[in-house]
User: Which sequence fits this backbone?
């Protein structure tokens, strides 16, 4: 496109000439996207945590001591085929005892002569909603003495987790809309200062597409640069948070890998930022395009007509 | 008087003897019920120079605005350059405006651009090729006598010079018609005469000029066709007419 260079020049010239209002717009976009980014960050953490928890819910089916290893393996195959089961592993009496020993700080070998722990099947449940039904089915199988999946705790925690997920989703939607409105309004004010240019363009016969172009580029620049700066701040903030958590807590199931987090945030912020910038400037220009060029307000037209009548 | 149509303008445009601007019983009522034009019947032929006169608020500007479709008539039909533009779709309006140059009382120049940039702007925003712009801008500025001030900004120019820039911008696309809405309204009498002289020069090259004014001195000096409008109606229309302020008063008394 031969005139694209001209529009690019026009855009930068416009930004430079209205440097104060351009800076305010840029900062507004940056601040909106930064806060949106902070909220997205926590939303990602919550979702990751809840997701990890829900996808790794495990159930223990404790086996009777009379069961041979061979029978236990056969039983495992039966359980594997039940609906709602993602994975099953066999934990022998010895393995269970070893895990127990690892988790306790005092040496329990002195306290117990004989291994009191039963062999078990560790069942990873596909969906926590199906856990109760599945537990009932497994309990009925021959050789299974007891099934445990922390049902009491699950009843309490599950609604909270689902609530958190839904709330964070709506929060993201509301925040996106709020920043969209803020940015549209700021860009609208910036464009208002250039109503004369738009009017002249209309008068000399520029098509609406041509008139929109420099403002679209400007909106894109605001969205892109605002998102980039917001992302830079978020990257610094998140790495500080990770350092702090790693230094103070050994166990942190809720933490999201830095690269994964930044990748997610980058996609969301750039897409939202550019979309918001471009849509915002489109709405603002089109509001101006609806006005006829060089059209005195009807009020003043009426007033002059009236004044003339008064004179004569 | 009608001339042979310029073949470069294409077949759709003016046929011989067809007016370049033709108002057929046009009325314009604003949303606040102000009647800007009432039953206006009006023709302008190719190559004419026509003054629209009348008191402030009489409808001169409204009439001009109807030609470049900043305003749509409430009733009647308008033909411009052989085409009925009454219901011209909005997507075609820019193409109409490229054939109709406009000049205003307040110049409508961009203060941050130089003279040359202001003139070039109107070509750039319609996507004209760079070579075209380089060739046409100096020509237009020479035509209006500003070739030595191309790098100045509007703020450094006199009112008359600023209006010349606006005229250069209006003629750069070689439009068949130029509309001037009180182009001398902000200028002293001498400068006003120079501006109108420039417009007559442009007119001699074949461009139809329609100029709204309430400056009786200008009208009487140049002796062209005069159309007198009052309260949205055309009251009289004379070749080589004169415009006396007294005319208004006499008419009002009778």
Assistant:
């Amino acid at each position: 496109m031969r005139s694209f260079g001209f529009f690019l020049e026009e855009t930068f010239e416009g930004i430079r000439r209205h440097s104060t209002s351009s800076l305010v717009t840029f900062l507004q976009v940056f601040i909106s996207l930064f806060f949106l980014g902070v909220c997205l960050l926590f939303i990602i953490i919550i979702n990751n945590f809840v997701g990890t928890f829900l996808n790794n819910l495990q159930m223990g089916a404790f086996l009777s001591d009379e069961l041979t290893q061979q029978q236990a393996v056969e039983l495992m195959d039966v359980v594997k085929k039940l609906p709602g089961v993602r994975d099953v592993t066999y934990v022998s009496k010895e393995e269970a005892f070893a895990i127990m020993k690892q988790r306790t700080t005092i040496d329990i070998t002195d306290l117990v002569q004989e291994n009191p722990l039963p062999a078990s099947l560790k069942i990873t449940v596909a969906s926590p909603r199906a856990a109760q039904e599945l537990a009932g089915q497994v309990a009925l199988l021959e050789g299974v003495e007891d099934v445990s999946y922390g049902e009491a705790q699950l009843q309490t925690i599950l609604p909270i987790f689902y609530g958190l997920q839904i709330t964070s989703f709506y929060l993201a939607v509301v925040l996106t809309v709020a920043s969209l409105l803020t940015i549209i309004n700021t860009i609208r004010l910036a464009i208002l200062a250039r109503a004369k240019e738009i009017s002249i363009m209309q008068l000399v016969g520029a098509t609406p597409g041509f008139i929109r172009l420099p403002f679209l580029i400007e909106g894109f620049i605001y969205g892109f640069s605002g998102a980039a700066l917001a992302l830079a701040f978020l990257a610094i903030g998140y790495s500080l948070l990770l350092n702090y958590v790693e230094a103070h807590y050994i166990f942190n199931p809720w933490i999201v890998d830095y690269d994964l987090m930044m990748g997610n945030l980058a996609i969301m912020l750039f897409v939202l930022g550019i979309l918001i910038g471009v849509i915002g400037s489109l709405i603002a220009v089109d509001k101006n395009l609806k006005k006829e060029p060089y059209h005195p307000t009807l009020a003043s037209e009426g007033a002059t007509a009236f004044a003339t009548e008064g004179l004569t | 008087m009608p001339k042979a149509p310029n073949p470069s303008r294409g077949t759709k445009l003016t046929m011989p003897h067809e007016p370049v601007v033709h108002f057929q019983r046009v009325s314009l009522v604003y949303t606040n019920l102000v009647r800007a034009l009432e039953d206006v019947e009006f023709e302008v032929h190719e190559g004419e120079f026509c003054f629209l006169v009348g008191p402030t608020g009489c409808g001169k500007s409204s009439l001009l605005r109807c030609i470049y479709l900043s305003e749509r008539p409430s009733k009647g039909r308008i033909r411009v350059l052989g085409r009925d533009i009454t219901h011209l779709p909005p997507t075609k309006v820019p193409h109409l405006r490229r054939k109709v140059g406009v000049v205003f009382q307040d110049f409508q120049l961009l203060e941050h651009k130089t003279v040359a940039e202001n003139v070039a702007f109107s070509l750039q925003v319609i996507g004209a090729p760079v070579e075209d712009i380089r060739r046409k801008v100096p020509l237009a500025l020479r035509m209006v006598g500003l070739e030595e001030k191309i790098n100045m900004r509007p703020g450094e120019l006199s009112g008359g010079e600023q209006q010349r820039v606006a005229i250069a911008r209006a003629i750069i696309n070689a439009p068949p018609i130029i509309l001037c809405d009180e182009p001398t309204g902000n200028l002293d009498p001498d400068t006003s005469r120079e501006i109108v002289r420039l417009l007559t020069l442009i007119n001699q090259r074949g461009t139809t000029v329609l100029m709204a004014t309430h400056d009786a001195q200008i009208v009487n000096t140049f002796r062209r066709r005069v159309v007198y409008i009052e309260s949205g109606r055309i009251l009289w229309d004379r070749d080589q007419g004169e415009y006396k302020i007294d005319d208004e008063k006499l008419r009002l008394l009778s």
User: Anything to note?
Assistant: The helical segments of chain B are 60-67, 93-97, 115-124, 130-143, 159-171, 189-204, 216-222, 245-253. Chain B touches chain A at residues 30-32, 34, 36, 55-58, 61, 65, 68, 70-71, 91, 94-98, 102, 104, 108, 110, 112, 121-122, 124-127, 129-130, 169, 173, 248, 252 (CB under 8 Å). Residues 1-12 of chain B have pLDDT under 50 and may be disordered. Strands of chain B lie at 21-29, 35-44, 49-53, 75-80, 83-84, 100-104, 177-181, 208-212, 225-230, 233-238.
